[in-house]
Specification:
Layout: H1 2-18, H2 22-30, H3 33-41, H4 48-70, H5 75-96, H6 101-122, H7 139-157, H8 171-177, H9 182-206, H10 210-248
Helix pairs in contact: 1-2, 1-3, 1-7, 2-9, 4-5, 4-6, 4-9, 6-9, 9-10
Length: 250
């Protein structure tokens, strides 16, 4: 699992480093690629723990954003605090593990609805959807550093039992890559989290064998993403089409 997960983490972080759209970065990060590899290779039984893990992922980004942007801490120190917060939640949930799926699913979905309604009402996140590029290291050196960082992240994840599924393998490095726009990134990822909830729900409902469960999970993720972002895509297409028509007019 270690090598395949490291390669997946490296690929996710690399792609995100090439993108300037914060919204697109958050969506790419929310794709359950490391989750799929862990579920394929580790003897983990999916239950409510993984739903709490999705919540913990959001807590990770909120904590890193808070300490870096609000308190002015260095991004690496803020990253470490975020990891500590995730591990603390994992340890706390481990006391009550295993957790039943359905009783945990209901408050998680309600919490997502509440966060999104409050976020829309108070316009959470900066108005800009564009993040500047990090610059710095040459491309090959940056790729090497990312791979080494992914090795460390995967090594940490092995210590967390059921929480290994949702551990922020790529998140640790993505937080550094997206440090200039972390509040906005955190908001967009929080919205996309419902797609991961849909993935876990379908996986849990499908049961064994794993390939069938993963197929159901990815299909559910795709449907949830289409519902969540379908309106935005339609509006973007209409705006693009309208701009094209206006440019064609004499």
């Amino acid at each position: 699992m270690t090598l395949s997960t490291c390669l997946a983490v490296t690929a996710v972080v690399w792609v995100i480093s090439l993108l300037r759209s914060v919204r697109l970065r958050a969506f790419i990060y929310s794709l359950p690629l490391p989750i799929t590899l862990v579920l394929l290779s580790a003897p983990v039984h999916v239950d409510g723990v993984q739903l709490v893990g999705i919540v913990a992922l959001n807590v990770f980004f909120v904590v890193v954003s808070l300490f870096h942007h609000r308190f002015g801490w260095h991004i690496l120190v803020a990253d470490a605090v975020g990891i500590a917060a995730y591990v603390a939640l994992a340890v706390l949930a481990g006391v009550f593990s295993p957790l039943p799926f359905a009783p945990v699913l209901v408050p998680v979905v309600l919490a997502w609805l509440a966060v999104n309604l409050l976020g829309r009402r108070h316009r959470v996140g900066p108005p800009s959807d564009v993040d500047g590029r990090s610059g710095g290291l040459p491309a090959t050196a940056k790729l090497a550093v990312t791979f080494v960082g992914s090795l460390l992240a995967v090594g940490l994840g092995q210590l967390l039992s059921g929480f290994v599924v949702t551990f922020p393998y790529s998140g640790i490095l993505v937080a550094v890559e997206s440090r200039r726009s972390l509040p906005s990134f955190s908001w967009h990822f929080a919205r996309n989290s419902i797609c991961l909830v849909a993935f876990m729900s379908a996986y849990y409902a499908a049961g064994d064998p794993k390939p069938v469960a993963l197929t159901a999970g990815w299909a559910s993720f795709a449907v949830a993403a289409a519902v969540l972002h379908g309106g935005e895509l339609v509006r973007s297409y209409r705006a693009w089409a309208t701009a094209g028509q206006q440019s064609d007019q004499p």
